[in-house]
Design brief:
The complex is a heterodimer of chains A (198) and B (292). With 198 residues, chain A is α+β, with helices and mostly antiparallel strands. Chain A has a domain at 93-168 and 177-190. Helices cover 23% and strands 7% of the residues of chain A. Chain A has helices at residues 11-15, 56-78, 105-108, 146-155, 181-184; strands spanning 80-81, 86-87, 94-98, 186-190. In chain A, strands 1-2 form a two-stranded antiparallel ribbon. A two-stranded antiparallel sheet of chain A has the order 3-4. Chain B has 16 helices and no strands. Helix content of chain B is 63%, strand content 0%. Chain B has helices spanning 2-5, 25-34, 44-47, 54-70, 77-91, 99-114, 121-127, 134-147, 157-166, 172-190, 200-214, 226-236, 241-266, 270-276, 278-281, 287-291. Chain B folds into 2 domains: 39-147, Cyclin-like (Cyclin A, domain 1), CATH 1.10.472; 157-291, Cyclin A, domain 1. Classes of the chains: A alpha+beta (198), B mainly alpha (292). At the A-B interface, helix 1 and helix 2 of A face helix 4, helix 6, helix 7, helix 8 and helix 10 of B. Chain B: InterPro entries: Cyclin (IPR039361), Cyclin-like_dom (IPR013763), Cyclin-like_sf (IPR036915), Cyclin_C-dom (IPR004367), Cyclin_N (IPR006671), Cyclins_cyclin-box (IPR048258). Chain B: Residues 155-284 form the Cyclin C-terminal domain. Chain B: This is Cyclin D1.
Chain lengths: 198, 292
């Protein structure tokens, strides 16, 4: 038989109307939760759908609309086409490309994952993202598989030459680690005076 | 799923000690100023929502509290989730059928903000009887974040309780019981639509006064007598004593009506249910039973 966490009070204290009778359910000195979350399975009684069934397709449509809205707002705010990964022409802000080797490692390294980051491609999270950086769609032949890209990401080998964002798809490549073009070039916004030319 | 969730080798939850240095007046003044930025609009049912009525919020809140209690969430998770919910509903007309998804998402966010081991999307979806899937919860999360302008550092009544308790001259063991009761009142208030627009400091002060009253706490210098305490706390929150008194009375009548409802619902089956589910019987926090 399960007992509640140590700090819970007797419900009878309320029901009896005399709060002075309240007593703790057992002798824990702390009144704090000490039991870990993982031991609790959802009880069937608490698992319920409250307001009827959700129209999933309609929900997806609305989410897409919202996302489009959010993206447009962000684009206007930052003068940047996030979907196309390039600055907007005639934007309020000026963007300059920066070699990812010149920026702090923090921005370049893949999100921290549990051990064995590159064990395979079947690690897809709930957003549908892979553990590793996605390879940009490329018309170029000889694109190495995601596996190659992945191990490079992990080793932190993100030294790529600087690219002019206006020259998309015209960049010359000397080695296979430049495949994910759009992911390798970081853009830094600046307002007026360029602090650094690359 | 059952096998996945079962894990026997677990440590107890580790938490930092309460930092006494944070219980000073400067922090309290900052919180009093900050709380105004996180108040939902008081009349969003009329002005913003088309399908959602106060009764639905109550049903949703009761379910959310049940989930938080069952998952042994930290006390602040539920009030915080309700704040996110109200702030979202203040700005975005929402379909009735998506209200539960929103509630689950708010718990998801509040738990991530406050807990070392947060609730998972999968578990929350199970609680919706799988009426939504984790992917939808994550999309909803992004939407909620944007509508709240990514500002999740809401001040809740819970944040004030410790400050108020530190100002009372009472024994530490009494303080723990008082804290528990005050937190229970705060949770109860979060389920009730009449407190949506009340400043968190007011709800917290009202809850502390009501808890002191309910526990018949006394002190030698009469500082815990109802008028004295009300006057004192109303000064602390820079409010009018009459406002605080009416808030306290509102809390007490809410408790009373909740208890009456609970007794009507549970009366005949009470003994049987308590035998069946011991953990239900020892949770008076259990506004979920009280509120159904």
């Amino acid at each position: 038989m399960k007992t509640g966490p140590s700090w819970r009070l007797q419900r009878s204290a309320f029901l009896g109307g005399k709060m002075s009778d309240v007593r703790l359910s057992n002798g824990s000195p702390t009144l704090e939760r000490t039991e870990p979350r993982l031991s609790e399975h959802p009880k069937p009684s608490a698992c319920r759908s409250l307001f009827g069934s959700v129209d999933h397709e309609e929900l997806q449509r609305d989410f897409k609309g919202h996302m489009r809205e959010l993206l447009e707002t962000a684009s206007a705010k930052w003068s940047f086409d996030f979907a196309g990964d390039r600055p907007l022409p005639n934007g309020r802000l000026t963007w300059e490309p920066v070699d990812s080797a010149d920026i702090p490692d923090f921005y370049a390294r893949p999100p921290r994952r549990e051990k064995d980051v590159c064990s395979g491609n079947n690690n897809v999270d709930l957003n549908g993202n892979h553990n590793c950086v996605l390879v940009a769609p490329s018309e170029d032949a000889g694109t190495p598989g995601a596996q190659t890209e992945c191990s490079e990401q992990c080793a932190g080998l993100r030294k790529r030459p600087c690219h002019d964002p206006t020259a998309q798809n015209k960049r010359s490549r000397s080695s296979s680690d430049e495949v994910s073009l759009s992911h390798s070039v970081e853009h830094t916004p600046r307002k007026s005076s360029p602090r650094r030319q690359t | 799923m059952e096998e996945q969730l079962l894990c026997c080798e677990v440590d107890s939850i580790r938490r930092a000690y309460q930092d006494e240095n944070l219980l000073n007046d400067r922090v309290l003044q900052t919180m009093l100023k900050a709380e105004e930025n996180y108040l939902p609009s008081p009349n969003y049912f009329k002005c913003v929502q088309k399908e959602i009525i106060p009764k639905m919020r109550k049903i949703l809140a009761t379910w959310m509290l049940e989930v938080c209690e069952e998952q042994k969430c930290e006390e602040e998770v539920f009030p915080l989730a309700m704040n996110y919910l109200d702030r979202f509903l203040s700005v975005e007309a929402t379909r009735k059928t998506r209200l539960q998804l929103l509630g689950a998402t708010c718990m998801f966010l509040a738990s991530k903000m406050k807990e070392t081991v947060p609730l998972t999307a999968e578990k929350l979806c199970i609680y919706t009887d799988n009426s939504v899937i984790p992917g939808e919860l994550l999309q909803m999360e992004l939407l909620v974040l944007n509508k709240l302008k990514w500002d999740l550092a809401s001040v809740t009544p819970h944040d004030f309780i410790e400050h108020f308790l530190s100002k009372l001259k009472i024994h530490p063991s009494t303080k723990q019981i008082l804290r528990k009761h005050a937190q229970t009142f705060v949770a109860l208030c979060a389920t009730d639509v009449n407190f949506i627009a009340s400043p968190p400091s007011m709800v917290a002060a009202g809850s502390v006064v009501a808890a002191v009253q309910g526990l018949y706490l006394k002190s030698q210098d009469a500082s815990l007598s109802s008028p004295n305490l009300t006057n004192f706390l109303s000064q602390v929150i820079r409010s009018d004593p009459d406002c605080l008194r009416s808030c306290q009375e509102q809390i007490e009548s809410l408790l009373e009506s909740s208890l009456r409802q609970a007794q009507q619902h549970n009366g005949p089956t009470e003994t049987k249910r308590m035998d069946e589910e011991v953990d239900l019987s020892c949770t008076p926090t259990d506004v979920r039973d009280i509120n159904i």
